[in-house]
Structures are given as C-alpha cells and as structure tokens.
Amino acid sequence: MGSGVMALDTGTVPDEFRAHPDWKDPVPSITDAATLGSGLRKARELSGRSMAELAADTRVHERYLRALEEDNVSALPSRVFAIGYVRAYAGALGLDEQLAVERYKRETPDASVALQAPVGVAFEDVKRYSPRIIGGVVLLAVAVIGWNVFQRVSLMQAPQPSDIAEVPESWSLGEVPGQDIVRVGAPMAAPPDQTTPALYITPGLEAELTGIDPTDTAAVAAAAARNAPPVQAAFNPRGAIYGASATASQVVLQAKKAGALVVRMADGRVLFARQLAAGEAWRAPADVSAIIDVSDPAAFDVYLNGELGGALTGVLTPLAQLNTRAQALARQTAAQVQADATAAQAAAARATLATQAGVARTVGSAEQTLSTTVSPG
To answer: What is the CA radius of gyration of the chain?
Structure first.
C-alpha cells in the first residue's frame, strides 16, 4: 500500500489497515456532524492543516473560516459571499461542496424572504359555488336576449292608413266641368342619338386647291393612293419588354420565335443577355456604343420609331447603325410633315388669290353691265 489519499469507506476499517504507518482516517461526511461548523472543524483537525494554510488556499480570511466553524452567522458577510466561503472551505477540506452548501442553507434560512401561503383554489369551493355562477350567467344571458326581443317587437308596427286632414272636393264630386283632367299617356319614343354633323365643303374650293374634282371617285382614290406613304406594321408588345424606357429608346428588337440576344459594350461588358421567347422584346438605349449578337437574325424584327424596319441583317449588328437609321427616319418624317404644311399653306394662299380675282372679275362685269344699261340708247 503506497502513500496517498485513501478511498472513503463507510464501513468498518480493519485494524491492520489502521496500524500501517501511512494510514489516514477518511474524512467524515459533513452530514455526520451535529452542525455544519463542527463538521468543518473536525475535518480541519483530521487534515492536520492550520487555519492560516486553509485561508491561503481558499483566499478567505481566517476570521470568516473561524466564524463558519463556530456557526457564527452574524460575523459573516452577505449570504451570497457566505455560501461561496462554505463551498470553498468544504472543497479545500475534501468534503462534498454541494452537501455543505445545502446544509448551510437549511441551518441558516434566508430571513429576507418571507414564507407565503400556498396559492390556489380549493376544488370543494369551486364545486360548492359553481351552480350559483352558472345560474347567474344563464339569467344574464336571458335578460339580454329578452331585452333585444322586446326592443324589436316594440318597433314593429302594423301598416295603418294615412290620416288626411281634408279631402279635396274634386275627389268626392268627381270631374268638375271646365277643369282639365291630367292623364298619363303612353311613353314617348326615345330621342335619336346625337351625331356629328357632316363637314361642310365649299363648292369648287377643294377642286381649286387640289386640282381634283371631288365628284370624280376614281381620281380621288388615285390621288389618295399616290400621296399616302407606305404603312408599316407598328410595334405590338406581346410579352415582357426589357431594356430602356419607351421615352429613351428609338430601336426595339422583338423576337418572332425563341432566340438568344446578347448586347456587349465597346469595352467588352455585357449590357444585356437573355433567351427571349416569342413576343418578348428589348428596347435599345440611345447614344450607346454596343454590338448586338443574336443566335438567329431571322428570329428578330427591328422596330424603328415604333414602325417595322425589317429583320436583322446579320448575327453581329452595331447598335449605332440602328440608332442612326431611326434618327434619319425621324428627320425624314419631320421634313415630310413640314413640307405638307408648307404646301397646304401655299395652296390656301393661291385659293385666296383666285377667289379675290374671281370676285374682282364679277364686280367688273357687274359694273360694265350696269353702265351699259344706264347709258342712253
């Protein structure tokens, strides 16, 4: 048997073990002593260690350790620190720290927390008063329902004839001679819908301005077909639209069938990349240098200023080329509108001059006729 700490044994220790020079009595349990303080003192005496050594190990002042051994609770600091001292002292002596703390709490209860009576409702009280409570609730419900029924019944009145203070004489005498009787006749037909009146055209003025007889249907149709510009298909959104806003774009690419569309900037960055389904479109921003790369040029229609401009001509198309075409068409349309307005103004001026000349001829002819009539035979 070597030296060291002996295992605790709750039974009887043989005498041959006690006669060994290395034998040490096991530390008694803290529950065997009469009080916590006596148990701590006995354990310290058996350990053979001084109070100063234990104070250095536990970092607790000697007077507090001595107060614990003497069960002098009044000499200890607050309860929290006292419990910590008990735990440290028991651990240094090889005792069960938790048992020591529980015994300290049991022997010195906390006086700051007053004992409170159990909270709860006795089942007998509930059973005794439940019929009264249920009866009160039923009576209250019946009273509320009865009051509502009474209010509704009191508001319901049977229809009664109106009281006429004075009956007109014509009601009792019938028709009065010389007095017209108002009778309601059959309903009248609804008035016809309002329509916009036809535009009035001065006879001879249209032919004078345009050089076309308005009564000649074939000539009017031929002139309309000759002057009308070719009508292109307008852009019709049939799916999602990506890219720039409608006010900041003049070029739109719309997929007639599914196809890939990739737009790369001049520096290699990808501005737009997507697999467009049939009907989806992409609006190209203006004043941007980019290259349009498509999987199938025939799968994409190009719309310039909202009108069809044909399909893409190649797999790679500069975006600046499409923007230039759109701007040129816009300028051409504006010039055509300006030219039409100028021609209309010139025609109106010619018509005015012709009208004035006709009036002058008519006046001259009238004056000549008048002078001939007035002159002597």
So the answer is: 59
Alpha helices per DSSP H over 48-183: 51-58, 62-69, 79-92, 97-107, 123-155, 169-173
Type and span of the H or E element at 366: helix 319-374
CB 105 within 8 Å of CB 83: yes
Quick one: what percent of the chain has pLDDT higher than 90?
A: 8
**Tokens 């004839």 correspond to what residue?**
161
| Total-model pTM | 0.35
User: Which tops the pLDDT comparison, 101 or 187?
Assistant: 101
* CATH number corresponding to 17-107: 1.10.260.40
Determine contact, residues 274/242, Cβ cutoff 8 Å. yes
The pLDDT of 280-287, averaged and rounded, is 88
Question: Where residue 166 falls among pLDDT bands split at 50, 70, 90?
Answer: low
Per-domain boundaries in the chain: 17-107, 241-325
CB count within 10 Å of CB 31 equals 13
Q: What is the sign of the dihedral through the CA atoms of 49, 55, 58 and 60?
A: positive
- What's the token pair of residue 199? 């535009």
Report which secondary-structure segment, H or E, holds 253. strand 251-255
Q: Which amino acid type is present at position 54? A: L
Return d(Cα 281, Cα 268) in angstroms, integer. Answer: 23
pLDDT reported for residue 231:
52
| DSSP conformation letters of 47-86 | HT--HHHHHHHHT--HHHHHHHHTT-GGGS--HHHHHHHH
Q: What secondary structure, in 3-state letters, does 283-349 show?
A: EECCCCCEEEEECCHHHEEEEECCEEEEECCCCEEEHHHHHHHHHHHHHHHHHHHHHHHHHHHHHHH
